[in-house]
């Protein structure tokens, strides 16, 4: 159909008559799938085929004689937009010169390419989205690497400051006056506060970078709640608050979660509640099982859920701030004159950890009445047993009998350490363990066990109330655990090997408890093992951090 169509010469004698070329052309274009329009030199439409009628959504009678409205260049290709009733389509336009009804005209081919243009636009948008995502991931990775590096760089001098401050407070550099000791205590308190902030930033960076992993195994809820209450009780007492929990202690409350991370979340929520509740108020943990979680909880799957609600009688949070408090570095009490310490990372980390375990953390609050933060975790398949609704209070004698357990462990220190070292050599805990001396394997295990035993005794003596001896014990455990992690790094141990070592130590401590208190229903042992396990987990965490830091810094010269 290219070129100029001219009338054919009359047929020769004896041949069948041929139809005129115009009729042949008309018959062809009427059956083409592409829209065909014939436009004369004045730009007026002379002919349209059925496909063109469908493209313009107008009949041939209404189109004939109407202006075409688009410039035409023979042999050229362009794209035009055809406005129809309710939508716009894109058509590819091609034109060739012809003679139509004896008049110079253009035969215009119109092909609907709307679907192709939409596909090209989608591909372009997908390409831009991929590029933007890669840039965002690269920026997030760079930020996480920067935070991790800076956290390690900050922790090194901070640990040195705290270590030398501890040495000074022990009188290594000479006797101290009361004023000097008070100033040292301020240095240590500020240093620890800054170290906790750095550790929280490092945890947040690991979560956002996807390098923080959690396990999802069936765990009992009640020991996690008890351990969190024991840890936060001194802080609540210091603020003049009543700390309690309501939980069906006879029910088998089991969730699919990481036990350490669940306790970390509970301690974060309880600490926040204590900080923002005025003296005379109360903080309560309520444990419930439900198949219909709160609407704001972002949970997936129709299954039973266990809700751990931390309720306080504080001043409450404004509705427009409820979601904002879960953002990093944000506190409900904000501004330069805020009256509470904190980095504003606890809630952000808690929610991220809960969601890593297929759960969530939500908040509800009423101004002037208080707030409720809820940890949602998937329930494991464990049939609940009917029982009474018990009230466990931090003021109740849950620590009674711990002193006897602590005293027994002190007498068992030598046996515990001997068995611990023997198991390190015999069992596949660490590849190099068999070739190490007793002193290298034992390291500071005896000191750590003795300190844990002492903590149990002090807990009973102080009836769970704040005690400077407890604070000192925590300082000693942290120092010993960090030195232990550094020593294991020098020996070339991995994180997995250090974790297995703590498993062995925990088993030996529990075995010693059973030797001294063989009754299975001994409440003293139950409460003591909850606290013991929590103290060991803290020590393990400090050792792992010190190991990672020492390993990243290379051999110690």
Which strand order spans the largest sheet, edge to edge or round the barrel?
Answer: 11-12-10-9-7-13
Distance between the amino and carboxyl termini: 87 Å
Helix percent band: 40-55%
* Average pLDDT for all residues: 80
In N-to-C order, the SSE pattern is HEEHHEEEHHEHEEHEEHEEEHHHHHHH
**Beta-strand share of residues:** 15-25%
SS field, number of helical segments = 15
Radius of gyration: 39 Å
- Contiguous low-pLDDT stretches (5 residues minimum) are 1-9, 11-16, 334-339, 383-399
Number of strands: 13
State the major sheet: 6 strands, mixed
What secondary-structure arrangement, pairings included, does this model have?
Elements: H1 21-29, E1 35-40, E2 45-48, H2 50-56, H3 60-63, E3 77-83, E4 88-100, E5 103-112, H4 114-169, H5 178-209, E6 217-220, H6 221-238, E7 242-247, E8 254-257, H7 259-275, E9 282-290, E10 305-312, H8 346-356, E11 360-366, E12 370-378, E13 390-393, H9 402-411, H10 413-426, H11 438-442, H12 445-461, H13 468-490, H14 495-516, H15 523-553
Parallel strand pairs: 7-9
Antiparallel strand pairs: 1-2, 1-5, 3-4, 4-5, 6-8, 7-13, 9-10, 10-12, 11-12
Helix pairs in contact: 4-5, 5-8, 6-7, 6-15, 7-8, 9-12, 9-15, 10-12, 10-14, 12-13, 13-15, 14-15
